[in-house]
Design goal:
The complex is a heterodimer of chains A (297) and B (1205).
Chain A (H helix, E strand, L loop, with lengths): L1 E10 L5 E11 L1 E6 L6 H8 L7 E6 L2 E2 L4 H6 L1 E4 L11 H11 L5 H14 L15 H13 L5 E5 L7 H12 L6 E6 L2 H7 L2 E6 L2 E6 L1 H8 L3 E5 L5 H7 L1 E8 L2 E7 L9 E2 L4 H19 L1
Parallel strand pairs in A: 3-8, 3-9, 6-7, 7-8
Antiparallel strand pairs in A: 1-2, 1-4, 4-5, 9-10, 11-13, 11-14, 12-13
Helix pairs in contact in A: 3-4
Chain B lengths: L2 H14 L2 H19 L17 H24 L4 H4 L3 H5 L5 H31 L15 H29 L2 H28 L1 H10 L4 H8 L4 H6 L6 H24 L39 H20 L2 H24 L6 H10 L1 H16 L1 H5 L2 H5 L5 H33 L7 H29 L3 H14 L33 H25 L8 H11 L2 H28 L5 H15 L9 E12 L4 E11 L6 E7 L4 E8 L3 E7 L4 E10 L4 E10 L18 E4 H4 L2 E2 L10 H7 L27 E10 L4 E3 L3 E8 L2 E7 L4 E2 L3 E5 L2 E7 L2 E7 L7 H18 L7 E7 L13 E5 H5 L13 H11 L15 H43 L14 H19 L1 H15 L9 H11 L5 H9 L1 E4 L2 E10 L2 E10 L1 E4 L5 E3 L3 E9 L12 E10 L8 E9 L5 E4 L14 E3 L1
Parallel strand pairs in B: 1-10, 17-18, 18-19
Antiparallel strand pairs in B: 1-2, 2-7, 3-6, 3-9, 4-7, 5-6, 8-15, 10-13, 10-14, 11-15, 12-13, 16-17, 20-23, 21-22, 22-27, 23-24, 25-26, 25-28, 28-29
The chains are: A alpha/beta (297), B alpha+beta (1205).
Chain lengths: 297, 1205
């Protein structure tokens, strides 16, 4: 099973160009889709999830033209949107059972087995009789993934699932994702680099509607090895530094700004080399895209 | 600027930015505009001599429009405090330095002002409409801007305050938008039902009326109480004064609104707590799973697709949506309120109304909720269609493989189930009520037939349209508002000329259930038109499906592109099928309307009437031979709703000149198979549309000569017509009159357009409603109307073998012939040519009394009042024969006929056709002194017509109806009084007085004195009864009756000249002593009203006896034709009495302890009022003092006639 995206573009009526010629190939397994807010992640995922029409481009899922065979795609799809609500007065069990029927699990025995399995997987068994209106964010998110997992989907799309979860809930959720079979395509859209670092053998970075990087996390890290430098700076220095060098990130360490700079050799005195991590990879590509765009303009 | 007013300003600006609010404004503006700028103004309650901008009219319309405000105020006020929670900006807002006071009050004030701004647009619309260039300036009154501003101050602003307070309170307490909407529905519908209750509240007494006036939050009932007797002049000149009931109402509701606001303020928490209170508040943290647990094998699963899976999804969704609606508190609140209303409406209806709780009357009450259902379903359609989007789970649903069509279908099915459940509950209420009132004849088929055969299909169309609108206009509030606007404005479409059934969505034929005739003849056309609109709704839904939002398409262009992709082969096939069904059924219906029947609109009828008048009015005074004998053979086929009539007219030239031509006017619905004159005649002119024929006789008919007209006519019904027919030959209960079946000789003035505004529109000259007494056309009473000719009459009627057919006269023969049952009737004495033939499956009650056969032909299920009606016939015959003249026939019959849109009884020679809706199922409790025996009264009235109408008929000019109707009312009250005493007729007189006072308030042209009465029922019946009874009370019944008996003997059965009202008055004046002559002048010849009251009264106890000192005041005014009053001097005799306290079932008075007549004389020429101080000494403790306690005088305000000691 392979998902191929070709030249996908989308411009909203208000003029925002959400996707610009996205090309992407995703194989079975966890695939991280990283990008800052507004990069077009949700647009891309909604488009793959048959919920939005692109202006241009094609999506192919194992030989199936996604844009033309939406019903067939939906039969193979599990989708967890970024933000969602549920019928507040219904119990978790009723909600899950309802969606199971909607997903075509009409056999009562199969449905019961699915519910048993998913409630255990998501650790919601104790809450299954309770109205979902009273669920915490994490519980709701887990119920959402249970809905997405119903009926053995071949393509699972989860959009920012860990945003707003506390660390325990987040880990619980990531564990759950990692349990999904390896023959399934799982697209994890997120702006949290750690999510990808912990889970995804492959990932892509989306910025300004374009894929600016795609590959394996280790490969991304390896590319930057020996080219990253850090220095503690004074705040006043920052603009001058940013104009002169490719600053990929500025963060505070015990209250003082520390910059990470991409450079082939030491950019100057006071800079020391850093071992890159995935976050650096992410920032490198994001800032690079911005610089390129600025140069083009 | 304080933060408080800043918030109000922000609130108003927020609403000004919302496009939907402009739609509301335009709707309100249009609502007002229509009433002054278009023929609307002349339709309905206003028009005639009421100015186009009469203050009372402006007041009423602005007031009513605030009611519609209740539909959209929730959208404005309900969101004022909840919005931030929805936008999730509350945490941000509430953590600022904002004070709760500023926030709540500011938002409230803003919402309130904005609501007033929107509802106030109706006043602006009225003003604009009145100033349109095409509006006739002659129809505008002198009024100024204040007349437009006043109702805004009295209704718009306070009602905005009250509704906003209610909605904000409901919003704060429930934190649910739906609950706010539901509160809106409840207010709107509660008000509507209250309004219908108010009509009957009169019978429950003034206290109840005041209570209803107080509890109406919009002030409509209170205003009605203040203005309901306003004459045209008052309507044109007066601004409503905020006093009395209206003042209390306004104060009460402003106070309540303030209180609610206070509650909302106290309850409102500026905290971050989310939405609704939820059940699962305390979910314990779940145990953390061991991350090293062995992975469990995934259970095998094979999702299915295809029809079976779609069906399963449909069923699951239907169940879910049904539960979603019905389990929610707001819905349960609606149901509770609905059932409360139902019980309340039923209860009041039967307290005040007068019929037994037979099933179809229960159903009628359920159907009163029709508008409620439409609005409720519209709101819930909006709610359900956008349910997922509102819950933010639309993407979850949209990503499942379930077909969009199944989702929509499930939502429709859930709405259907909801309404079925609601109707079922109402049905249950009806049955329970029947059982509680001891009526155990439950007709479940009638309930089911109405609710599930008529109401469910009707509401289904509403649901489909509501859903289609939501899909096509993807904005919830707008979709709801459009549908509600459609249903509210629907009855008015006709007035703007949109009458065709095929162009008025869901305009289905009315089906009027009758116990005799079942659901009647319209069932088939109902089904056809329903299917027609169903197919249309399917088409709309199919287009809605194209635009259906699935996912986040963004933008109209994208949606249109998706829509193009959705127009698949299957879609086209569905559309093709629906379109074929729609067009096919439409063509079939049109074929029935236009080809098999004649298509006539109400406007079309008027246009034809105008043609008739223009072309033939010239013949109005033409001398025509007069009908002398009619011989008929009528073959009725109730089975096929057809009839065949063969007959002859013997016509005589009663004039002194020869008559060369005969003018015939034939009923529009009959087919002429043959028509010929003995001795030959040529048809020289025929107007096929109007069916006016002019025959030139071969030889002019010499004075005194006669000829014979032979004809064979058919009444053949094919298919169904556009207009509901009220006069079908029903399967059980056929009723055909001479005017429906047979040719009319001469010009018929009743065929002209009567309505003054319609005449103006059609360019016809102004016309008196009735010929003046001295009009040359009346020819001194020598030209006898076709229906007033005295004829010999013999009929043979053949009907279905299981039915009895009845015509006037004695039954001379009954036999079977060719499988038909035939009856031959011959009259003993000549009768007026005004008769009916009836046929039904009758039970017959027979008695012989004083040589007269009394017969009641009734429906087997209606035995309730037969004995009472029989008694009434006997008492009436005995009384009228003893006091006046002998009865002219040997039989007197009452015959039941199926219910119609208006229930009535009429008096034909020796026969009284009596609608099943009155008399037969009326209820009378002899112990209840607040009401009177209606079956008895109606019977006595109709029997009296055998004297007034049949022995003496009146000239067809002004005042003629006094001779016929007022005197019959007088006869009836005499018999009633003999049977029940003065206490038994006082409630009737009280009701008549109210009918008169309301009638003159609704008069649109001019009021006339009784002796010049025209068509107005409030004069000829209501005022007529009081006038004659009052006169007899003063002068003495013996004298009045003797004079009338003499009049009957002198003028009875005389063909020409027929008497007029003045002849009766002359006879009465002759027996009236001089001191009472004023009464005839006042009550009969002018419009005079008393305003009497007890100014003061006190009681002292003396040795076990009671001395009552009473100050009684009297006043009298003359009114002109529009109600302008001038004081009149008094030297009048008025009754004053002392009474015990009223018992539990008496309205105002107990038994009389003293009752005296006194002469009240004006104090002086300057002060025409009169005041008398009287003393009564009585043995029992008195409780009430009253002037004119039994309503024997025409009095403008009678509540103050009673004084509680």
């Amino acid at each position: 099973m392979r998902l191929t995206i070709r030249d996908l573009s989308k411009t909203y009526p208000n003029g925002v160009r959400a996707l610009r010629g996205v090309d992407l190939t995703i194989d079975a397994g966890m695939f991280g889709l990283l990008g800052p807010n507004g990069a077009g992640k949700s647009t891309l995922m909604r488009t793959i999830a048959t919920l939005q029409e692109p202006d241009r481009g094609a999506i192919d899922l194992g030989g199936l033209d996604v844009l033309r065979n939406k019903p067939a795609v939906r039969e193979r799809l599990g989708y967890l949107p970024q933000e969602f609500g549920l019928y507040p007065n219904l119990s978790a069990e009723h909600v899950l059972d309802h969606f199971a029927v909607l997903k075509g699990i009409t056999d009562a025995r199969e449905r019961r087995a699915q519910l048993e399995f998913l409630f255990e997987q998501t650790n919601l068994g104790a809450a299954r009789k309770l109205a979902v209106g009273g669920f915490s964010g994490g519980m709701k998110q887990r119920l959402g993934i249970a809905i997405a997992l119903l009926g053995a989907p071949r393509l699972i799309i989860v959009d920012e699932p860990t945003a707003g979860l506390d660390p325990t809930e987040r880990h619980r959720f990531l564990n759950l994702l990692s349990d999904i079979g390896h023959d399934v395509i799982v697209i994890l859209g997120t702006h949290i680099v750690e999510d990808v670092a912990e889970l995804c053998p492959k990932f892509a970075i989306l910025a300004g509607g374009e894929i600016v990087y795609t590959g394996a996390p280790e490969a991304g890290v390896a590319e930057l090895r020996g080219r990253l430098w850090r220095r503690v700076v004074a705040k006043a220095e920052l603009p001058e530094l940013a104009a002169r060098l490719h600053v990929i990130s500025t963060r505070l360490v015990t209250g003082r700004p520390v910059v990470h700079v991409h450079h082939f050799e030491a950019p100057g005195p006071g800079f020391e080399p850093v071992a890159p991590d995935l976050e650096d990879v992410y920032f490198y590509h994001i800032t690079r895209a911005t610089r390129l765009a600025a140069r083009a303009a | 600027m304080s933060p408080f007013s800043t918030f109000a300003g922000i609130e108003i600006r927020y609403h000004l930015r919302r496009p939907v609010n402009y739609i509301f404004m335009v709707l309100m503006l249009l609502g007002g505009w229509l009433y002054t700028a278009t023929p609307f103004a002349w339709a309905g309650p206003f028009g005639g001599a009421v100015d186009n901008d009469a203050p009372h009219k402006l007041n009423t319309i602005v007031m009513f429009m605030t009611l519609f405000g209740a539909i959209f105020t929730p959208a404005i006020a309900g969101t004022a405090l909840l919005r931030d929670f929805e936008f999730r900006s509350h945490e941000l807002l509430f953590t600022t330095r904002l004070r709760k006071f500023d926030f709540v009050l500011g938002r409230f004030l803003g919402a309130c002002l904005f609501t007033a701004l929107v509802t106030g647009c109706s006043a602006l619309g009225l003003w604009l409409g009145a100033h349109m260039p095409w509006v006739d300036p002659a129809r505008l009154g002198p009024g100024g801007a204040l007349a437009y501003v006043w109702p805004v101050l009295v209704y718009v602003v306070p009602n905005a305050f009250v509704t906003c307070a209610v909605f904000i309170a409901v919003g704060v307490l429930t934190r649910s938008f739906l609950a706010v909407y539901v509160a809106g529905i409840v207010m709107f519908v509660g008000r509507q039902i209250g309004l219908s209750v108010m009509d009957g509240a009169f019978h429950a007494g003034p206290q109840i009326e005041r209570i209803i006036a107080l509890i109406d939050p919009f002030g409509l009932a209170a205003s009605g109480l203040v203005t309901r007797h306003w004459t045209i002049d008052e309507q044109n000149t007066r601004l409503i004064a905020v006093v009395d009931a209206l003042l209390w109402n306004r104060l009460l509701w402003l106070a309540l609104g303030g209180l609610l606001l206070l509650v909302a303020y106290r309850w409102f928490r500026m905290e971050a707590s989310p939405g609704v209170r939820r059940r699962a508040r305390s979910i314990v943290d779940l145990p953390v799973v061991d991350p090293h647990r062995p992975p469990r094998p995934r259970p095998p699963v094979r999702p299915r697709s295809g029809p079976a899976a779609t069906w399963a999804a449909f069923v699951a969704m239907t169940r879910l949506y049904f539960r979603d609606v019905t389990r929610a508190r707001p819905f349960q609140a609606v149901v509770a309120v609905l059932l409360l209303f139902m019980l309340h409406a039923v209860d009041l209806n039967f307290q005040m109304m007068i019929t037994l709780p037979v099933t179809h009357t229960m159903v009628l009450i359920v159907q009163e909720f029709g508008l409620f259902f439409s609005i409720l379903l519209a709101v819930y359609a909006g709610q359900l269609i956008w349910r997922e989007r509102d819950l933010h789970c639309d993407q979850l649903l949209d990503a499942t493989p379930v077909a969009s069509v199944a989702v929509i279908a499930a939502k429709i099915a859930a709405l259907l189930l909801v309404q079925i459940v609601l109707l079922g509950l109402l049905l249950g209420c009806g049955v329970i009520f029947q059982a509680l009132s001891g009526y155990m004849h439950f007709e479940l088929p009638v309930y089911f037939g109405h609710l599930f055969g008529l109401d469910v299909p009707r509401h289904t169309l509403t649901i489909l349209l509501a859903v289609a609108l939501q899909l096509l206009v993807p904005h919830k509030g707008l979709g709801v508002a459009l549908l509600v606007a459609y249903y509210v404005l629907f009855p008015l479409l006709k007035d703007i000329g949109l009458e065709h059934r095929l162009l008025r969505y869901a305009d289905l034929p009315q089906i009027l259930y009758s116990d005799m005739n079942g659901f009647g003849p319209n069932v088939w056309s109902f089904a056809v038109l329903w299917a027609y609109y169903f197919a249309f709704a399917m088409l709309l839904l199919a287009f809605g499906r194209l635009l259906l939002v699935r996912g986040t398409p963004g933008g109209l262009r994208a949606r249109l592109r998706i829509a193009r992709g959705r127009a698949t082969g299957a879609w086209w096939r569905f559309v093709g099928l629906a379109a074929a069904a729609w067009l096919g059924l439409g063509a079939y219906a049109a074929h029935n309307f236009h080809v098999r029947n004649t298509y006539v609109t109400e406007r079309g009828v008027e246009a034809l009437q105008a043609v008739y008048e223009r072309a033939y009015k010239q013949y109005e005074g033409l001398l025509q031979p007069q009908l002398a004998a009619v011989e008929l053979r009528i073959d009725l086929s109730p089975e096929t709703a057809s009839a065949r009539v063969r007959g002859t007219y013997r016509i005589v030239n009663t004039h002194e000149v020869a008559v060369p031509d005969v003018h015939l006017h034939l009923p529009e619905e009959v087919t002429i198979h043959a028509l010929s004159f003995a001795g030959g005649a040529t048809l020289v002119h025929e107007d096929p549309r109007i069916r006016h024929q002019i025959w030139q006789l071969a030889a002019p008919l010499a004075p005194g000569a006669e000829t014979t007209l032979r004809f064979e006519l058919g009444v053949e019904r094919t298919g169904f017509a556009h207009r509901d027919r009220d006069t079908e030959i029903h399967a059980n209960g056929a009723l055909q009159s001479e005017s429906q079946l047979l040719p009319w000789i001469g010009y018929d003035r009743d065929g002209e357009v009567a309505d003054r505004d319609a005449r103006r529109r059609l360019g016809l000259p102004e016309r008196a409603r009735m010929l003046a007494v001295d009009d040359p056309l009346a020819k001194g009473g020598l030209v006898v109307r076709h229906t007033h000719a005295r004829i010999d009459f013999s009929t043979t009627v053949c009907t279905a073998p299981d039915q009895i057919a009845v015509a006037p006269g004695a039954l001379v023969r009954e036999w079977q012939q060719d499988g038909r049952r035939c009856f031959a009737y011959v009259v003993d004495n000549p009768i007026l040519n005004s008769w009916v033939v009836q046929s039904a499956r009758y039970e017959v009650a027979r008695e012989r009394h004083a040589g007269i056969d009394l017969e009641i032909y009734y429906h087997a299920d209606h035995p309730y009042n037969i004995a009472r009606m029989m008694t009434a016939m006997k008492r009436s015959l005995d009384y009228y024969q003893a006091q006046f003249t002998p009865y002219q026939a040997r039989q007197l019959r009452i015959l039941e006929f199926p219910r119609r849109h208006q229930d009535f009884a009429m008096a034909m020679p020796g026969t009284i056709p009596f609608s099943e809706g009155i008399g037969f199922i009326l209820k009378f409790d002899p112990d209840d002194a607040t009401t009177y025996d209606r079956p008895f009264w109606i019977t006595a009235h109709e029997v009296a017509h055998q004297w007034w109408g049949h022995q003496v008929s009146a000239r067809f000019v002004q005042g003629g109806t006094m001779v016929i109707e007022s005197l019959s009312e007088y006869f009836a009250i005499l018999v009633m009084e003999q049977e029940y005493g003065i206490e038994g007729v006082a409630p009737m007189l009280r009701e008549k007085l109210e009918i008169y006072l309301r009638g003159r308030a609704q008069e649109r042209e001019r009021e006339v004195p009784l002796v010049r009465s025209e068509g107005q029922e409030y004069i000829r019946y209501a005022k007529g009864m009081i006038a004659f009874y009052g006169l007899a009370d003063l002068v003495g019944k013996d004298r009045v009756n003797a004079a009338l008996a003499e009049f009957l003997r002198a003028r009875g059965f005389g063909p020409v000249p027929q008497p007029i009202a003045d002849d009766v008055i002359a006879a009465l004046r002759a027996v009236t002593p001089p001191q009472y002559q004023y009464f005839i002048t006042d009550t009969f010849e002018t419009i005079t009203l008393y305003d009497n009251r007890i100014c003061d009264a006190a009681v002292t106890e003396e040795q076990g006896r009671f001395r009552v000192r009473v100050t009684a005041c009297a006043r009298k005014v003359r009114a002109d034709e529009h109600g302008r009053e001038t004081p009149a001097p008094l030297a009048d005799t008025i009754e004053v009495g002392v009474f015990t306290a009223p018992g539990p079932r008496q309205l105002r008075l107990g038994k009389p302890l003293a009752l005296e007549k006194h002469v009240f004389t004006s104090k002086s020429a300057d002060d025409p009022g009169a005041e008398l101080v009287l003393e009564f000494v009585v043995d029992e403790r008195p409780a009430v003092v009253a002037i004119d306690p039994y309503y024997k005088l025409i009095e403008s305000r009678s509540n103050d006639n009673f004084f509680d000691l």
